[in-house]
């Protein structure tokens, strides 16, 4: 594990989580996600700057940690594979444990887990291409 980090690639990876999330939780799954989460799709967020600011900082931490895990010069196939592994085997399954105890639906888990799977695959693509 190396601490040689391409900071610009990490920031772009974090921003990519927002682009993906905008599509995923917008036109693709907004209504299904809101229905399954029990949220009014027309309600305004309470503090959008706080929500988006916190989400960006957390995406940045995740992208940084993933870059550290991959090392300074990962091969693209390995980076994408690790992204799928982390996104599914660590993040989505952890959500699944919480959702099982919270009595949340399989559909909600598939939407949220699917987003995080693709988020880390996208991180792998960006970090695997941009050394």
Give structural attributes:
single chain; 131 residues; mainly alpha; 5 helices
Structure, explained:
With 131 residues, this protein is mainly alpha-helical. It has one domain. It has helices at residues 7-28, 30-37, 48-70, 76-102, 106-129. Helix 1 packs antiparallel against helix 5. The protein is globular, with a radius of gyration of 15 Å. The model has no long low-confidence stretch (mean pLDDT 95). InterPro entries: DUF1761 (IPR013879). This is DUF1761 domain-containing protein. It holds the Pfam family DUF1761. The chain crosses the membrane at residues 6-28, 49-70, 82-101, 108-130.
Briefly summarize what is shown.
The chain is an all-alpha fold.
Which ranges are low-confidence, i.e. pLDDT below 50, for 5 or more consecutive residues?
A: none
The helix count comes to 5
Which of globular, elongated, flat, extended, rod-shaped describes the shape? globular
Q: What is the CA-atom radius of gyration, in angstroms?
A: 15 Å
Query: How large is the share of residues in beta strands?
Result: under 5%
Order of helices and strands: HHHHH
State the separation between the terminal residues, measured CA to CA.
15 Å
Please estimate the helix content: over 70%
How many domains is the backbone divided into? 1
Structural class: mainly alpha
Largest pleated sheet = none
- The number of distinct β-strands equals 0
- Compute the average pLDDT: 95
List the helices and strands and how they pair.
Layout: H1 7-28, H2 30-37, H3 48-70, H4 76-102, H5 106-129
Helix pairs in contact: 1-3, 1-5, 2-5, 3-5, 4-5
């Amino acid at each position: 594990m190396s601490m040689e980090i391409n900071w610009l690639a990490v920031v772009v990876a974090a921003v990519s989580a927002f682009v993906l999330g905008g599509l995923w939780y917008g036109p693709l799954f907004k209504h299904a996600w809101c229905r399954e989460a029990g949220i009014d799709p027309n309600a305004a967020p309470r503090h959008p700057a706080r929500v988006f600011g916190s989400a960006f900082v957390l995406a940045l931490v995740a992208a940084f940690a993933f870059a550290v895990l991959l090392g300074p010069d990962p091969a693209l196939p390995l980076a994408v594979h690790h992204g799928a592994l982390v996104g599914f085997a660590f993040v989505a399954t952890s959500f699944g444990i919480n959702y099982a105890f919270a009595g949340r639906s399989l559909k909600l888990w598939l939407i949220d887990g699917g987003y995080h799977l693709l988020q880390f695959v996208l991180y792998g693509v960006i970090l695997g291409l941009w050394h």
